[in-house]
Amino acid sequence: MTIGTTSAIEKRELRNVLGAFTTGVTIITTRDSEGKAHGLTANSFSSVSLDPPLVLWSQSVGSTSFCAFNGGEHFAINILADDQIGLSNRFAKSGADKFAGVACTDGVGGVPVLAGTAAHLECTKIAAYPGGDHVVYLGRVERIGCSGRRPLAFYGGRYMVPYAHELGPMSLVLSGIEPVSVAAQRHVQAALPAIAEEVGQHTLLLGVWGNHGPTVVHWEPSKRPVSRFFPPGLVVSPTRTTTGQAFCAFLPESVTREFVAEDLRQWRDPGEDEASQRARFDATLAEVRERKLARVVDKEPSVLHRVPTVAFSTALYDAAGAMSMSLGMVAPAHQLSADWNGAAPRALLRAAQGLSDQLATLGAKE
Ligand SMILES: Cc1cc2nc3c(=O)[nH]c(=O)nc-3n(C[C@H](O)[C@H](O)[C@H](O)COP(=O)(O)O)c2cc1C
How close is the Cα of 90 to the center of ligand 1, in Å? Predict the structure, then answer.
């Protein structure tokens, strides 16, 4: 952890630190004296007091709508639902008519109350305090509404979806392997943005062995995306993908056998006999075990990735030393070298080792 004094704090550093505080996302709205609606995306919203009911938020003095809020008497805090990212982006830019086509009703003092939100608060502005390059508005809550929709969250400069910390006892019993604990999966997911950076901004994928075989449960998009299409819950081929090969190499054969047999049958080249296809796959698995890494070079674009790709995957282990998840990366072939010893696969292996060490500690605590 680095510690900076006020004078030494750089704006970017401060942004990073503030970004570590997870918030919701709101659109704050008002109506000016001429009846024109104004609104902006804001995450500076905070509750202040229950009795009397008070809330605050702060606005940059540079924002276009500053005069409308500074001069206005009312505002509404619209707490966005997790499917309202488009609306958030629209209200985070100045100009244009932000309200065109947006369903809303009039709240206290005529302030626009947006439809489809998680909740909203209609407020009377009771104070405005100077706060550096922002003004802090204190509002008394007059009217509220709550839809029960899941709210959108914001963390580290990115939109997030909040989940409950524990899902309760899981009864999923899979043949011969321990289901991955929710805590372990979350722990790994939380580490992925930093790992994407370490491997050189390639898309990461986290896999588990589900009841239909290797299943991608999470994609970590990178700044150099391989695709715009990242379906979680995607069951992948056990023999032709790095995720599948990693599981087949490191899970007990009894767990993977049926899935592998079916997949090989499906993908057998005409003219190739079963035994030699099997021998080829066994040789692939032997190499995966030796290198602790699976690699697939796809020279043709696929349905998922419209460009030729290079992918690597490796195993993550639980406290008992059994493979629990796969960690992979995939990138367009021109961005990721297929070299087994390249910087990116080495970084992936290092990251996986670190995660397995952490999962072992996590397992010991559970
Ligand atoms: C997640 C998020 C949170 C934001 N929070 C605030 C905030 O609290 N206060 C603020 O003044 N601007 C905030 N902004 C920036 C404004 O939304 C942005 O400057 C917008 O263009 C202002 O609109 P206007 O210029 O039409 O007033 C935030 C933007 C995003 C994406």
Answer: 10
Rounded-to-integer distance, Cα 39 and Cα 112, Å: 9
CA of 40 to the centre of ligand 1 (A): 5
- Which residue shows structure tokens 């929709």? 149
- For the Cβ of 44 lying below 6 angstroms from any atom of ligand 1, the answer is yes
Task: Write the CA distances from 236 to 48, 212, 306, integer angstroms.
Answer: 49, 9, 17
CATH number of residue 65's parent domain: 2.30.110.10
Q: Which amino acid is at 129?
A: Y
- Which residues have CB under 8 Å from 248's CB, separation 6+? 238, 239, 256, 260, 285, 288
Answer yes or no: do 346 and 271 share one domain.
yes
Do 150 and 178 lie in a common domain?
no
How do residues 200-251 score in pLDDT, each as one tens digit? 999 999 999 988 899 999 999 888 877 777 888 899 999 999 999 999 999 9
Residue 158 pLDDT exceeds 80: yes
Distance 284 CA to ligand 1 centre (A): 52
Q: Which atom of ligand 1 is nearest to the CA of 25?
A: 1
pTM as predicted: 0.54
Give the containing element (helix H, strand E) for 105.
strand 104-106
Helix (H) or strand (E) holding 302: none
Look at residues 238, 212, 242, 213 and name the one whose alpha carbon lies nearest to residue 305.
242
Instruction: Name the domain boundary from 155, 186, 213.
Output: 155
Q: Calculate the alpha carbon distances from 345 to 112, 145, 327, 364 in Å.
A: 51, 50, 11, 29
CB 220 within 8 A of CB 196: yes
The CB of 104 under 6 Å from ligand 1? The reply is: no
Q: For residue 130, is the peptide bond before it cis, meaning its omega torsion is within 30 degrees of 0?
A: no
